[in-house]
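User: tokens in, sequence out, please.
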């Protein structure tokens, strides 16, 4: 954590990557809403290695508004790392996150804070009317969110919504591996009974273009299989990652051996042998995916997920 002066009550954390057209309008909205709330606040923009004019525009905003702080990362580390950096530098007792593309409506922030004040620890926005293509973005997102809720028991059905409010003690020190921001707040180990959702608006993107494509669906499915283990076992260990990798390698080898042996069997037995080989190979792939994510968590915890060039 950094920054002088008394700590604000509210930190608004905004990760940005190539959002030069959006940061000024978003800042104006955030400043207006924060002033209306009447709480001491800061607006913390995390510049995730933008290659356009985003940083220059942020510096102009910071020069004109003492509430604005910039965490300038030393490279492009991804949204999960940018959020981790924002959590590390946020000073408010309450931390609100939102996307830098203008799709989250700052006017929804007071309702999230009101729900938080009722005694829960996390409030997540839920976009009921999505302003995106249904087949390529909305439908896969709904399927993934249903699976995440089932796997973790955390009642959040729009994990992809960037608008969330946290009590600071839950997020301080978080080191999120790439892509794991999709599983907040489950990945933080929050008690499901202390998580709430609030309906929020979804707006069309401001300027620029989306940084996500269809490949996200496959990445989510790969990461999702490890989620129950990561959430319920607490801090994963490198020894666990090695055991999973070894088990996966043994199963893969067994599957190959069985598949080769099937060629020597009579047709009646060959189908059963091939089914067994396929099962071993699928289980090996599952073990490898889980081991990969356990390893990523250990590395993130030990080495960190971001580097800061400077804080303005």
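Assistant: Sequence out:
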């Amino acid at each position: 954590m950094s920054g002088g002066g008394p700590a604000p009550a509210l930190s608004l954390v905004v990760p940005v990557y190539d959002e030069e057209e959006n940061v000024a309008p978003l800042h104006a909205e955030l400043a207006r809403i924060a002033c209306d709330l009447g709480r001491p606040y800061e607006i913390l923009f995390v510049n995730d290695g933008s290659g356009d004019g985003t940083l220059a525009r942020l510096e102009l905003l910071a020069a004109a508004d003492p509430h604005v702080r910039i965490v300038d990362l030393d490279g492009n580390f991804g949204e999960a790392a940018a959020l981790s950096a924002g959590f590390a530098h946020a000073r408010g007792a309450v931390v609100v996150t939102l996307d830098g593309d203008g799709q989250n409506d700052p006017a929804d922030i007071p309702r999230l804070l009101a729900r938080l004040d009722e005694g829960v620890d996390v409030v997540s926005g839920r976009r009921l009317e999505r302003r995106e293509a249904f087949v390529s973005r909305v439908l896969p997102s709904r399927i993934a969110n249903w699976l995440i809720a089932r796997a973790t028991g955390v009642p959040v059905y729009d994990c992809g919504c960037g608008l969330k409010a946290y009590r600071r003690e839950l997020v301080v020190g978080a080191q999120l591996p790439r892509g794991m921001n999709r599983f907040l707040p489950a990945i933080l180990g929050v008690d499901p009974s202390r998580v709430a959702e609030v309906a929020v608006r979804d707006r069309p993107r401001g300027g620029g273009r989306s940084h996500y494509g269809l490949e996200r669906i496959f990445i989510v499915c790969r990461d999702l299989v490890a989620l129950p283990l990561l959430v319920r076992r607490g801090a994963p260990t490198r020894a666990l990652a090695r055991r999973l990798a070894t088990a996966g390698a043994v199963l893969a080898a067994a599957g190959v051996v069985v598949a080769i042996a099937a060629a020597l069997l009579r047709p009646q037995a060959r189908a059963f042998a091939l089914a067994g080989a396929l099962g071993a190979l699928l289980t090996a792939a599952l073990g490898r995916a889980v081991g990969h994510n356990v390893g990523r968590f250990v590395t993130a915890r030990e080495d960190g997920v971001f580097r800061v060039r400077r804080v303005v």
